[in-house]
Design a protein that fits this description.
Layout (H helix, E strand, L loop, with lengths): L2 E11 L6 E12 L14 H9 L6 E6 L2 E2 L22 H11 L5 H14 L15 H11 L2 H4 L12 H9 L3
The structure holds adenosine-5'-diphosphate and magnesium ion (MG).
The site of adenosine-5'-diphosphate has 12 residues, from strand 2 and helix 1.
């Protein structure tokens, strides 16, 4: 059975006198299809562990693997549902969901829109496609985030990797920072 695994993983933040050992020779396996729960007091390293599995952080020592392959960085095959929202607040739910595939040049906007509406219907959010994230409950936001990062969309390789985002995408990326 496929697994995510930690083998003798240590994680140290900082160096010298400021070094803080957060994980020390930690080993476990997460089996696909099983619910795994990580419990511990605040600051014990739960988020750090998830960040290492996601590839957002690198282990100081030891191996982090998925199906035996080393985790070197973030990947579409490992989705993280964050505690805080990961939706762009200035875009509608539909625009949030179509943003990834269109910015990566995977799909035309029309095809991305059709697929997004079908995925949103599956999670009961079709009627909220035109609403903004602030109008959704926390649970609805998490579902929208899952759809926005649905592997079915993202497993397709970009048609033109390295192509800069089109102007309409650039204006949307910067809209919220103005
Ligand atoms: N990027 C970082 N740089 C320095 N220290 C960090 C960093 N991330 C987390 N830490 C420290 O690592 C410890 C574990 O943090 P974290 O994994 O977020 O804990 P938990 O999620 O269990 O509450 C905390 O003491 C935190 O301050
Ligand atoms: Mg945490």
């Amino acid at each position: 059975m496929a697994t995510m695994a930690f083998r003798d993983v240590s994680k140290v933040f900082g160096t010298g006198a400021r070094a803080r050992v957060v994980l020390e020779e930690c080993s476990f396996e997460v089996t696909r299809g099983k619910l795994n729960v990580l419990i511990g007091p605040s600051g014990c390293g739960k988020t750090t562990t998830v960040n290492l599995l996601a590839g957002y952080e690198r282990a100081t020592r030891g191996d982090v693997t998925l199906d035996g392959q080393p985790v070197h960085g973030p990947s579409w095959t490992r989705l993280v549902v964050f505690q805080e929202t990961a939706l762009f607040p200035w875009m509608t739910v539909l625009d949030n969901v179509t943003f990834g595939p269109t910015v990566r040049g995977m799909m035309a906007r029309r095809a991305a829109r059709d697929q997004a509406l079908s995925l949103l219907e599956k999670v009961g959010l079709k009627d909220f496609a035109g609403r903004y994230p602030a109008h959704l409950s926390g649970g609805m936001q998490r579902r929208a985030e899952l759809v926005a990062r649905a592997p079915a969309q993202l497993h397709r390789p970009p048609r033109r990797p390295g192509r800069p985002p089109p102007p309409w995408v650039r204006s949307r990326l910067t809209a919220g920072t103005r």
